[in-house]
Amino acid sequence: MESDVEFPCPTCNKEGCLKMLAHSSEIPYFGEHTQITISCENCGMRQTDFIPSEDRGAVSFSLSIEKYEHLNARVVRGSSGTIRIPELDLEISPGNQSTGYVSNVEGVINRFLDIIRMMMRQSASDSKLANDEKATEELHLLLQIELALVALIKGEIFGELSLEILDPVGHSIIGHDDAIKRDLTKEEIEELDTGPKSLIMNNDENTDE
What we know:
Blueprint (H helix, E strand, L loop, with lengths): L1 E3 L13 E10 L3 E10 L5 E7 L6 E6 L3 H4 L2 E4 L4 E4 L4 E3 L8 E4 H26 L2 H21 L8 E6 L5 E3 L4 E4 L2 H6 L7 H10 L1
Antiparallel strand pairs: 1-2, 2-3, 3-4, 5-10, 5-12, 6-9, 6-11, 7-8, 7-10
């Protein structure tokens, strides 16, 4: 179902350009949910989130990646989800333009690889242009992380790394029987970024005025 959102675009601030597409379906382990996508016809901004039918609260899911089956585990990352590979001190936090997606563990690892490789190109450029020793050290560290992630996908270091999602509003999950679910502590909730402000909520608030 598509409808207009009577609220200015948070990116280009133009009014009358936002559309909302809502679609309900079932995802294994996640259950019944509504996928909501907000898009702007003017600037192309696009924001997706997954709203479960049941309130999950502030939760964390973690999975020790010990076999190929774990690489195929379903991952639903809501726009408020923070993803970590704690053993490598890697984290992807939701920003103002964060969007939700459905993938698997291998797909999430590839997203980390894309970011690492982008940072490697920048560090290599800085090191070459300025003969920067710090950039050279950073490049070496990034290379070690890249090699570890590639080895994980190839199944060479199963049992050494894990994937964790922390979501203060409960829109994220790692869908596998081996995934461990726990409630987030108050301290964790306060430290986590909740991602972009809900445009749907903003729209409802404006309508009530």
